[in-house]
Amino acid sequence: MNVATKEQxxxxxxxxRGSKLSALIYDPAFWIGERAGMAERRRSIVSQAMGxxxxxxxxxxxxxxxxxxxxxxxxxxEPEPNMADRLRKRVASSGRDVEIVRAPGELLPFDDGSxxxxxxxxxxCTVEDPAASIAEIHxxxxxxxxxxxxxxVRSESERLARWQDRMNKPWGVLADGCNCNRNTASLIExxxxxxxxxEDDRWRMVPPLVKPLIYGRAVKLA
Length: 222
Prior knowledge:
Blueprint: H1 6-13, H2 20-46, E1 52-55, E2 73-77, H3 81-92, E3 99-101, E4 115-121, H4 130-140, E5 141-152, H5 158-174, H6 184-190, E6 193-202, E7 212-220
Parallel strand pairs: 1-2, 1-4, 2-3, 4-5
Antiparallel strand pairs: 5-7, 6-7
């Protein structure tokens, strides 16, 4: 299998949904949800990264401050150009040696088995093809590597799940292509990961459509 170049990944990233306004209001829009527990979840997940680490869909860099200082390397990918600009500014002010790459989750321009850890938080809801993105995460991880994740998912409540289905399209228009009804845990498990350390949770102070969460560590199976 030929690995995409960074130029090819950047070209594919041009189709990412977003705008200058979305990037500008992203952090303020998340402020209440972050204060209501998401920031602590980010810290608990991201602080476990080790070795050579890749974050997919890094957005404006809300995870950045939680990465350990002793990583062997840190690469952040973000396809949407306005988000990537804000990410670069945040990283530049830190003084850390970090590589930022324009790439979608479905086309990661890295060799097989390049990373010990992949981090993804609130990413698989917005990618065009979550199964392809999970396959790419699996590919670039070393055997036994860790995929540290937080994702909002389809509810186990039949009533809420029906509302997620009904509202998925209008929610996506409002939230730059976010899908509120994806059964992400099943997709990750089907993609070759042990998800026994992935837990269910609830996101407080956000719309009910995106309250159900999974978070934790998925391990790449051989």
